[in-house]
Amino acid sequence: MAKSLMEVVGEDHVVIDPDVAASYGIDWSRRYTGTPSAVIRPADTAQVAGVLAVCRDFSLAVVPQGGNTGLVGGGVPVDGELILSLRRLSSITDVDQAGGQLTAGAGSTIADVCSAAAAVGWSYGIDLASRDSATAGGTIATNAGGLRVLRYGPTRSQVMGVEAVLGTGVTVSHLAGLTKDNTGYDLAGLLCGSEGTLGVVTAARLRLVPESPERVVALLAFSSVTAAVSASLEFRRTVPDLRSLELFFDDGLALVCDVFGLPRPFPKAYPLYLLVEMASQIDRLPELSEIIESTGAVDDVAVATDTARCDGLWQYRERHTEAINTVGTPHKLDVTLPWSHLVEFIETVPNVVRTANPHATTWLFGHTGDGNVHVNVTGVEPDDLNVDEHVMTLVAQLGGSISAEHGIGRAKRPWLHFNRSKEEIATFRAIKNALDPLGILNPNVLLPVH
Ligand code: MLT
Ligand code: ZN
Predict the structure, then answer these.
(1) Atom of ligand 1 at shortest distance to CA of 366?
(2) How far is CA 397 from CA 319, 337, 345, 419, in A?
(3) Beta strand 209-210 with 14-15: parallel, antiparallel or unpaired?
(4) Ligand nearest to the CA of 372
């Protein structure tokens, strides 16, 4: 089998040395680990097709992997699967300056896509803290969200078409990038969020968005969850060119400042904070100041317009993930709530976690602009599912989604039925059987065991 794989990608790109393969066996959550039987590193779509042909012949389970920044165990070989690393497919081609599109190889990072866009006067709609490692292919497989979803939508909204090798062995390619193209099933849309279970995306035609050079970032302090969530709703309706609307609490801020030696943003602590970013063609600061004033609920404000200070304010939010990792391996429970239950959820979830496990600590932050809360729980063993079960149950009771942007992976698999009916799951299985009839592609994620 190794010989057949080497014939496809070359000897150097079938990695069996356990020390080298180890870094492919753990994702950013650090909760899921595994030892791949080998890591295969193809160079192009034809080699991906060749690798999958060998996997089909030998019935080998294979986990496609990009930058390995996943947070639900969806790209980790927990059961000793082969890793199919797409990182070598990193070229960015066919940049269309006039039309605002480019074709990104699956292994190009989000930072690379952003740079290629900026080089021709455009911007990319997806931005996330893992931008230097997360790849175009990985963000498509997970339909990643990030910091600008309220303005530009998730990854699915950026993808005009894909090239992919399906589990059937067939290569499909639809990269013309026509804005209007109403010609049947949306295979790209289907592959977005399919978590490597149907096919391996090798390239994507991505739409770009206009640059918005005038940036205003404001960090706002609040005394209550109700005040912060009401302000969020108001800002979504009234703030022009709103690009991000993020929330975090004082315990998370204190941890970030402590771990990274950052100064606190205000002379005193407040219970919670919203970070608001506007990005526009014109200076929006006067309008933002007026809106903040009129809410009457903001206890303190720090504002930045130059890049260095904007980035400085963002650190307080973006560095939560790394800071929490220093406390322990978190259970990362990424959920969305309907607006009507967001306050109730935020106020209730720490008690629900404490009842499920008195040793647990809850950290809350997230993308309030999308109703998306990242519930991080430390002090719980990685394989203890009790806290997860209780939080997922609360989310379902309040009409929310058990996965807002990280996907289902291994982490949420037991609770997919909280959001998806029997009929929907049966339809998922029918799609899986049609596109991956031998069940070799990421067989242990997304779909419930039975
Ligand atoms: C974020 O919003 O920072 C990311 O989703 C990562 C995380 O949830 O830790
Ligand atoms: Zn997030």
Answers:
(1) 2
(2) 31, 10, 10, 10
(3) unpaired
(4) 2
Q: Pick the residue whose CA is nearest to atom 6 on ligand 1.
A: 321
Distance separating alpha carbons of residues 118 and 134, to the nearest angstrom: 18
Check if 151 has its Cβ closer than 6 Å to any atom of ligand 1.
no
Tokens of 252: 């998370």
Q: Which helix (H) or strand (E) holds 243?
A: strand 242-249
Which ligand has the minimum distance to the alpha carbon of residue 129? Answer: 1
Q: Which two tokens stand for residue 267?
A: 């002379």
Report the run of H or E that residue 351 belongs to, with start and end. helix 339-356
Angle between helix 285-295 and 225-238 (nearest 10) = 140
Which atom of ligand 1 lies nearest, measured to the CA of 318?
A: 3
Between the CA of 21 and the centroid of ligand 2 the distance, in Å, is 28
Its pTM surpasses 0.85: yes
The verdict on the CB of residue 155 being under 6 Å from ligand 1 is no
Give just the sign of the alpha carbon dihedral 167, 168, 171, 177. Answer: negative
Give the bridge partners for 401, in sequence order.
336
- Which residue in 416, 395, 255, 400 sits closest to 327, CA to CA? 255
Q: Cβ(172)–Cβ(209) under 8 Å?
A: no
Nearest-ligand number for the alpha carbon of 374: 1
Extract the tokens encoding 305: 């317009």
Rounded to the nearest angstrom, the distance between the alpha carbon of 6 and the centre of ligand 1 is: 37
| Amino acid in position 340 | S
The predicted pLDDT at position 151 comes to 98
Question: Quick one: which atom of ligand 1 is closest to the CA of 317?
Answer: 3
Cβ(129) – ligand 1 distance below 6 Å: yes
**116 band by pLDDT with thresholds 50, 70 and 90:** very high
Q: What is the pLDDT of residues 222-263, one digit of tens each?
A: 999 999 999 999 999 999 999 999 999 999 999 999 999 999
> Does any ligand 1 atom lie closer than 6 A to the CB of residue 374?
yes
HEC profile of 291-332: HHHHHCCCCEEEEECCHHHHHHHHHHHHCHHHHHHCCCCCEE
Cβ atoms 146, 81 nearer than 8 A: no
